[in-house]
Amino acid sequence: MRILVVSQYFWPENFRINDLVKEWVQRGHEVTVLTGIPNYPAGTVFAEYRQQPEAFARYEGARVVRVPMLPRGSSTIRLSLNYLSFLVGGIIWGPWYLRGIEADVIFVFEPSPVTVGLPAVWLGKIKKTPVVFWVLDLWPETLAAVGVVRSPHVLNWVGRMVSFIYNRCTLVLGQSRSFLSSIANYCNDKRKIRYFPSWAENVFMDEDAALAPELTRLDDGFTVLFAGNIGEAQDMPAVLDAVQLIDDPTIRWVIVGDGRKSKWLQTEVDKRGLHGRVLLPGRFPVERMPSFYAHADALLVSLKRDPVFSMTIPGKVQSYLMAGIPLLGMLDGEGAAVIHDANAGLACDAGDSAGLAKAVLALAAMSPEERRQLGVNGRLYAQKEFGRDQLMGRLEALLDEAMTISKAEGVKKAQI
């Protein structure tokens, strides 16, 4: 199968699409990736890419094609221009850069922004190729949830754009079951909507990983680890409130990652006098995560209180479950339901700092055997519900289905 991936983000940035592309190549597919210039999450172009861009033209056997794009920067205006630049670059330069490259199907990876779909449907039209769109972030709902856009007129316009994209895709995949009803609001043909969750990456199963040297070993304490994007949605103010509610010097919080709220977080840790209790080692490649997980007694996932976030299963949940370490959740809806259903840890409502503090103390009071069992429960649940091999096979079947639908529609049009 010849697969064209359209994604604003790609290696050396850390996103699940990297793992997917690698798997497709290993399964014998011919993969081309149309993407932008690596600059997430810091907002500046990766130094190694600036020094030697040609070294990033192939990834695990896949061809990587990059269109001109303005880095994210650190302001809302720069972020908007970043989104717009990839949109324009993908539409104008994408067809030229991809000339002569055939594709059987186009796969769109959409953690945000949804505008990534516009170059994809344009390429689908040019190449007469079906488009499969994987929705990982709901627009326009997320824009309103994080307060980026408040104008009803702008949100309505974004909704029209979303509808334009969905209705020109052959299949639209939602990362949680709750996403499907929202997608249906913008999709004329409900039959094209499918449920497809993120998978649990096997890299997190490495129980023999050496301890990360960036952290001191804590033999008698309790370590809560958060790993991933540090943004508005992760509700770091509520997390820090929970830290302050716990008067126990043996409990430490480690936040590994980067994002638009990183500088705020560092400043707030200083302001609240949380040095030594909250550690911020920075951002590391996904391959290093098992070494940080090796320090953890519990893994934290948090999302702000909002209806759209309650429909979301954060991608880190699957990774956390596969790591075999108990989870601590401060979130609503489907994400919390996964933790409860798996019996893999403790969860409280989104924004409930007191509830999170209580859950941390409860988990710390458990015996090592009790916590070990929660971790085992989580891994077994991840292998059953989010197993990588089974989901990779399901996605292949969905791509085949899109190709079959497209061919049938082509025959129908020819007969008319």
Describe, in plain words, how this protein is organized in 3D.
The chain has helices spanning 16-26, 47-51, 76-92, 94-97, 117-127, 141-145, 152-166, 177-184, 236-245, 262-271, 289-293, 307-310, 315-323, 333-342, 353-365, 368-385, 388-415, and strands spanning 2-6, 30-35, 58-59, 62-66, 105-110, 131-135, 171-174, 193-195, 222-227, 251-256, 278-282, 298-302, 327-330, 345-348. With 416 residues, the protein is of the alpha/beta class. It folds into 2 domains: 2-199 and 387-415, Rossmann fold; 202-385, Glycogen Phosphorylase B (Rossmann fold). The strands form 2 sheets. An 8-stranded mixed β-sheet has the order 3-4-2-1-5-6-7-8, sandwiched between helices. A 6-stranded parallel β-sheet has the order 11-10-9-12-13-14, sandwiched between helices. Strand 5, helix 5 (117-127) and strand 6 form a beta-alpha-beta unit. Helix 3 packs parallel to helix 5 (117-127), helix 9 (236-245) packs across helix 15 and helix 13 crosses helix 16 (368-385). The mean pLDDT is 94.
